[in-house]
Design a protein that fits this description.
This protein is of the alpha/beta class and 580 residues long. It folds into three domains: 123 residues, Immunoglobulin-like; 358 residues, Glycosidases (TIM Barrel); 53 residues, Oligo-1,6-glucosidase, domain 2 (Alpha-Beta Complex), CATH 3.90.400. 25% of the residues lie in helices and 14% in strands. It has 16 helices and 18 strands. Helix 6 packs parallel to helix 7 and helix 12 packs parallel to helix 15. The chain starts with a helix and ends with a strand. The structure holds 1-deoxynojirimycin and calcium ion. The site of calcium ion has 6 residues, from loops.
């Protein structure tokens, strides 16, 4: 599955610009008319997650410590100081549980275990402890829609129709003709139904046949999964990234799809996703994390077709998923200032002031260096996309290696790479999952052994060690953005103010704090020099102070004006200002 491809199709439905609520306007704006505003669900001012940077780690590819070519938990612990220095608030680890790896860990065979290839529970405990010491929180990936077909729960469930765990999965009699109960298609292709010869029923799987869907109507299953959550919270997790949240329930009438191959994409059919019963489960889960000491959260893989649907994922009273990922933004792959403006304005204007969650790269998405890059200006372009994600209001996700401009592994470097016990199946997401590039040495400092996926040849020049030593590097660009996000009140908690640049190639906006001080962001999304005439400022005095950051670096000497700018091709400029 390439969700980026999926999302682009869904995007068309999402683009409708709305007005900005008074709550999102800066303090310098004139007070809104006397009409009382409708009550908005509130996020506590001290909630750590509402403006956090969460760094996604694919443990298999981050750092190997025992030479088997597979990254491990000890490796993550070893790199915590690096992450601290970079400035991230939390890490999200993709699954490290025992798994036959039909979907690289997203087919879980034991929800409360650690796969031997990743280490032991003691390694997890050490990682959680060491992360806490450094003020870094750790999120565990909870694959709640399905387990592996090798999970003991499923083995029991399929053993007989009368097994007590039969109803932990979704079983159905064949259609009258003996075929699958419905014509539904799975997200990974083929029917959603797999035949079980022994018990003569079909089981349901929205992903691979090796990933049977769990039945959330079963009280026993529900209790077991809530216990899994409590287990990890007790072991120091600060919450969960929830996998595939829209798919917990299916239409109990099991209708046939009259338009199975057309119309709405298969991952967003009304009968297979977003059923209201799912909200009650998410409320239960939120209540569980809310009870954890220190503020645990739910980060949701909550793909939606529209911004209105995304709003619903937070819960009517903001009591469901704290941070639903904004795939309407995350699936964009074309640099287009107008499209971004609309999407970002929506995320700030139509989510009732709740924090949006912006990201571009992930273990399911092409890396942003590759997806936005034109092959010539990739470095400048990557500085634009990162400056945007990291200066917007809300929470930002990063994907390991993004901070050094890692690219997708080129097809020719993957072409003849053998399958084997470490890489049982080829996956079209392999290119974005290549080993982290720590050094320019053979193995890139990732592993002394034969790595499970090839280390990119680019590692000889694109690596952490080289970039730490170069103050103009991508690493330092990111580290500075993260530092400003933490230390400049406007970038941390300030309102988002949309601006007009007078130029369709230039995206302009500002972040403004309660004193009216702030930062204006200008991004030239074209390969030509552009001028911008900036308007749309709320009333009130304002003086440009300095250029905080600029790419290309020479852009900094252009001077700090809040009303006009000349921008080099693919330039990014952050201008600080005072509200007096
Ligand atoms: C979403 C995960 O991010 C993806 O990697 C996985 O294949 C599917 N869910 C199925 O679990
Ligand atoms: Ca290892």
């Amino acid at each position: 599955m390439k969700t980026s491809r999926i999302g682009r199709l869904a995007l068309a439905a999402a683009l409708a610009l709305g007005a900005f609520p008074a709550a999102a306007r800066p303090a310098v704006a004139k007070p809104a008319a006397a009409k009382p505003a409708a009550a908005k669900p509130a996020v506590r001012a001290d909630a750590w997650w509402k403006n956090a940077v969460i760094y996604e780690i694919y443990p298999r590819s981050f750092q190997d410590t025992n030479g088997d070519g597979i990254g491990d938990l000890k490796g993550v612990t070893q790199r915590l100081d690096y992450l601290k220095k970079l400035g991230v608030d939390a890490i999200w680890l993709t699954p490290f549980f025992p798994s036959p790896n039909a979907d690289f860990g997203y087919d879980v065979a034991d929800y409360t275990g650690v796969a031997p290839e990743y280490g032991t529970m003691a390694d997890w405990d050490e990682l959680a402890r060491e992360a806490r010491k450094r003020g870094i929180r750790v999120l565990v990936d909870l694959v709640l829609n399905h387990s592996s077909d090798e999970h003991p729960w499923f083995k029991e469930s399929r053993s007989s129709r009368t097994n007590p765990k039969r109803d932990w999965y979704v079983w159905h009699d064949p259609a009258p003709d003996g075929g699958p109960p419905t014509n539904w298609q799975s997200i990974f292709g083929g029917s959603t139904w797999a035949w079980d010869e022994k018990t003569k029923q079909y089981y349901y799987h929205i992903f691979l046949p090796q990933q049977p869907d769990l039945n959330w109507n079963s009280p026993g299953l529900k209790r077991a999964m809530y216990d899994v959550m409590r287990f990890w919270l007790k072991h120091g997790a600060s919450g969960f990234r929830l996998d595939a949240t829209p798919y917990l329930f299916e239409d109990p009438n099991w209708p046939n799809d009259p338009d199975v191959k057309g119309g709405r994409p298969v991952w967003l059919k009304p009968y297979n996703s977003g059923l209201p019963k799912g909200n009650a489960i998410l409320r239960d889960m939120r209540a569980i994390v809310n009870k954890a000491p220190g503020g645990a959260i739910l980060l949701g893989e909550s793909s939606t077709a529209t911004i209105e649907d995304l709003r619903k994922v937070y819960g009517k009273n903001a009591d469901e998923i704290n941070l639903p990922m904004d795939f309407l933004y995350g699936n964009l792959t074309k640099l287009d200032a107008r499209v971004f403006k609309q999407q970002i304005d929506d995320a700030h204007g139509k989510l009732d002031g709740l924090p949006p969650v912006f990201f571009f790269s992930s273990h399911d998405h092409s890396r942003q260096w590759t997806s936005f890059g034109d092959g010539v200006n990739n470095d400048r372009i990557a500085r634009i996309t990162s400056a945007m994600t990291l200066t917007l209001r809300g929470t930002a996700l990063m994907y390991y290696g993004e901070e050094i401009g890692m690219a997708d592994l080129p097809a020719q470097e993957l072409k003849d790479f053998p399958l084997g016990p470490k890489r049982r199946v080829a996956d079209n997401r392999d290119p974005e999952r290549s080993p982290m590039q720590w050094t320019g040495e053979t193995g890139a400092g990732f592993s002394n052994g034969a790595s499970w996926l090839p280390v990119a040849k680019a590692a000889s020049t694109v690596n952490v060690a080289a970039q730490l030593a170069d103050s103009g590097s991508m690493y330092h660009w990111y580290a500075r953005l993260l530092e400003l996000r933490k230390t400049v009140p406007a970038l941390r908690d300030g309102a988002y103010v949309p601006l007009e640049s007078g130029n369709p190639a230039v995206l302009a906006y500002a972040r403004v704090d309660a004193q009216g001080d702030g930062v204006m962001v200008l991004l030239n999304m074209s390969d030509a020099a552009q001028t911008a005439t900036i308007s749309g400022w709320p009333t009130g005095p304002r003086t440009a102070a300095a250029v905080f950051m600029a790419s290309p670096a020479a852009s900094a000497v252009a001077g700090a004006s809040l009303s006009a700018a000349s921008l080099e091709p693919y330039a990014a400029r952050l201008v600080s200002f005072r509200g007096r």
